[in-house]
Specification:
globular, alpha+beta, 27% helix, four-stranded antiparallel beta sheet, five-stranded mixed beta sheet, single chain, 13 strands
Length: 291
Amino acid sequence: MIGKAQGPPISITGLGAYVPSRIVTNDELSTMVDTNNEWIMERTGIRERRIAAPDEAFTDLALPAAKAALEQAELDAADLDLLLCATVTPDMMFPTSSALLADTLGAGDAAAYDLLAGCTGFMYALVQAYGMMAAGLADRALVVGGDVLSRILDWTDRSTVVLFGDGAGAVVLEKVDKPGFLGFELGADGGGGIHLSLPGSGSRRIEDASANGFVHMNGREVFKFATRVLGIPRERMVVNVDRYGNTSSGSIPLALAEAQAAGRLKEGDLVLMTGMGAGLTWGSALMEWTG
């Protein structure tokens, strides 16, 4: 699905991000599984990741990110019409994390729901929020992306435990005078879904003793899928995987917030956001940064 932005200009007016305080280095992981810093760095570029505390759930990470985004946009939560949470690790299946977050923030009049699309979740949620606003169904939206993947990893499986970390980011969308979002692309290939899955996590109870309710990944196939396109020079990318690992739905808003803090997002810049993840899914958005 490819679409050009329609209707009134809509852009990001607020950014926020949050990661847990605990840092787990490659050297610490080497005490848990058969690996070492050199092996991980050579294959992934990751040297450390953030891991949530035992009492931290998704909304505990999402709340400070959302508050920071609202503060930057100079909005109160009560001004929101729509709140979307992209995550595969909600606090619980219901009530939704978005509804819990809306209540905590004080966004009592906002429609709120969760969305699952793996690492592409933030992109899907961003496009949905844009579509709702372009259709006149909402004026201001908060989109949160994040995950606590440490909860669903097998900490004896080096093929997955070295890759992922916990974190969340949030953006506020508003109608603006300048271009903002220019176009989008979303897609999915369910035939490849088996390569990245969480067996036994839904109504199809897969009785697979080897899964144990943890993430199952065919790393070779997922890597080929994720790197099939995008020949963009490294200097034009925002790279923070070395410090956070793959935070799934949190990766893109975390990167945006870091880029802004570093002064890399200037008015008029073209910004391309792209995600690939479980489904298998993919999604991109192109925008002109409006400052």
